[in-house]
Every structure is written in C-alpha cells, then in structure tokens.
TrEMBL record:
Pfam families: CTP_transf_like. It is an enzyme of class 2 (transferase). Coiled coil: none annotated. HAMAP family: NaMN_adenylyltr (MF_00244). Residues 15-179 form the Cytidyltransferase-like domain. Pathway: Cofactor biosynthesis; NAD(+) biosynthesis; deamido-NAD(+) from nicotinate D-ribonucleotide: step 1/1. InterPro entries: Cyt_trans-like, NadD/NMNAT, Rossmann-like_a/b/a_fold. It catalyses: nicotinate beta-D-ribonucleotide + ATP + H(+) = deamido-NAD(+) + diphosphate. This is Probable nicotinate-nucleotide adenylyltransferase. Gene3D superfamilies: HUPs. GO terms for molecular function: ATP binding; nicotinate-nucleotide adenylyltransferase activity. Keywords: ATP-binding, NAD, Nucleotide-binding, Nucleotidyltransferase, Pyridine nucleotide biosynthesis, Transferase. The keyword 4Fe-4S does not apply.
Amino acid sequence: MNNSLNQPKKRRIGLMGGTFDPIHHGHLVAAEEARYQFGMEKVIFIPAGKPPHKTRRDISLPGHRLEMTKRAISSNPHFTISDLEIKREGLSYTIDTVRAMKEVYVGWEIYFITGSDAVLEILTWKNVEGLLEECFFVAATRPGFQLGSVNHLPKGAMAKIKTIEVPALAISSTDIRHRVREGRPIKYLLPEAVEKFIFRKKLYQQ
C-alpha cells in the first residue's frame, strides 16, 4: 500500500519580493494569479530593504515603499505584508528571507514569486543552489514570452521553476517613475491609493 496517498497535502504560501518602487497592477495581478494557480493560502509581499541587484541610487525610502505596498494590497484578504527585509541590516538576499520564513511556516511549501527577468539572472543570486532546495520559483511572464531553460543550473533545478502568464506585466515601475518626472498620467497603472501617496509625498519628481 502506498502510504504517500494518505499523507495530507502540504500547505502553500507565496512570497512576493521586489523593490516596489512603486508597486503597480502588474505586481498585484501576478501575485493573485500565482496564488490561484498553485493553491496558496496567502501571499506575503516583502519590500526589499537594500536590494543587491539594484544599481540606481535614487531608490525611494523603505518606509515609503512599505506604505505604498500596504495601500495597494489592503483590499485583498489573501495578501499581507512583511517588513522583514526592511528591518534587516545589510543587503537583502532572497535565501535569507526564504529561510527566515521557513522558520515561521514550518512544513509549508514556499513559492517565491518574481518576474521572468529576475529568474533569468538567478545564477547571480546568493547561494542559488541552496535557494532552489528551499523553495519553488514562480516566474511571471508576458503572454507569448518563453522562459526556456536557465543555463548551468543544478540538475533538476528547472523543475522548481514554474511560469505564469500575466498580461499586466506590460506595466513597469521604471515607466511609472518616468511618467511622473515628465508630468504624464499614471492613473490606472497602479492603485489609486498608491497614486495619491506618490503625489502627496512628491516621489519621482525632479
């Protein structure tokens, strides 16, 4: 008799990491689609404290990015937020975050949700082999985009990388920042509460 058939299904949780400068509808749609497709009980948004792969020096204050994210997810009961990386000293490494979450959600399957561009750079991440042992990855792609295989990953690692198509990924934080600087509209690209916060705090202006 196969005892594995009698074992309860593992509970699943999603971690949505990112700079969120600013958070927009692409992030939110990706998180909700991943939650639905992979049966996650909830998705935790984790704004990066000091992201090691971001080279621009004008990243918004952590408190502002945290507040924008709180406002963006407030209407979804399956979404929550963590200031784990913002409070942590030093650079924000994904493997440290995943391991910290595994200490809280013991026995759960963890899915780290990110964009396909980040997954294609995964070989530059800290301890990528250990990271792929700790969690699954969900790579959000634009419709028609083929992720393919990531070269030189450990054997069997591609099985830990799942993909979902998200039409709203045509929206980008970079474009939103440029639009604000140029005085162009950003309405409908991101939640209204986030838009109001950006203009009240005068973010991304010259």
